[in-house]
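Sorry, I am new here, but would you mind making up a protein's amino acid sequence and the tokens describing how it folds?
***
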Amino acid sequence: MPELASTSEQAVRLGERIAVNAPVQGGAADIIKAAMVAIHKRFLEKGFRSELLLQIHDELVFEVRDEEILDVERVVREEMEGIIKLKAPLKVNISIGENW
């Protein structure tokens, strides 16, 4: 981080924020990718016709068949909350609606 060697205190503080934030965001990206792979695998195993449509940061948007809502919700929660064990457990908020 070249900012950390700067003579400008403002640049050093920026470098410190980047240095702290990068592994957190990188870890979050790794977690969501692993969860997406696990969810996809479970959808295939269960023969779901529902699909993952979109990922935005730590949010996933699915198109879910009415008859699969409860099963998809259970699978998504299990995979997202259980993909990695941390000291502070991951918790998932799930919302269901006609549109995003």
Q: What stands out?
A: The longest strand covers residues 51-56.
